[in-house]
Amino acid sequence: MSKEAVKAKDNIYYQARIRASKFNESFKNRDLTAEQLNIHPSTLARYELGILPVNQEIVILMSELYNDPSLISWFCNNECLIGKLCYKKNVCNVIAIKDD
User: Fold this and answer.
1) What residue numbers bound the domain in which 72 lies?
2) Full-prediction pTM beyond 0.85?
3) Which of 26, 28, 62, 78 is the most buried (most CB within 10 A)?
4) In this structure, are residues 78 and 84 in contact, taking their beta carbons and an 8 Å threshold?
5) Structurally, how many domains does the chain consist of?
């Protein structure tokens, strides 16, 4: 049985993995989760400890794997430079992309 992480307990990526473990036991194990994300377990540990920034591709994979779309929203609001600018200035709803 895996024990709760002390240092990572406040990290959003760790919290999402633990919430997902209620539906999939393998997420209780960082090594098994890292394998499913196709990353090294120490990389997942560094993400969950806040030592290494998580890139957007991994956030998308985590969101899909954990069935937690809030990870993408959180990333866009807090980590993505464009997203932070949009939400800070409240301009996201006025940006339009045209297909020409």
Assistant:
1) 12-94
2) no
3) 62
4) yes
5) 1
Given the structure tokens 């866009």, which residue do they identify?
76
- Residue 54 counted as domain residue: yes
H/E/C letters for each residue in the chain? Answer: CCCCCCCCCCCHHHHHHHHHCCCCHHHHCHHHHHHHHCCCHHHHHHHHCCCCCCCHHHHHHHHHHHCCCHHHHHHHHHCCHHHHHHHHHCCHHHCCCCCC
pLDDT score of 1: 43
pLDDT digits 0-9 by tens, 86-99: 876 666 655 455 56
Is 33 in contact with 62 (CB distance < 8 Å)?
no
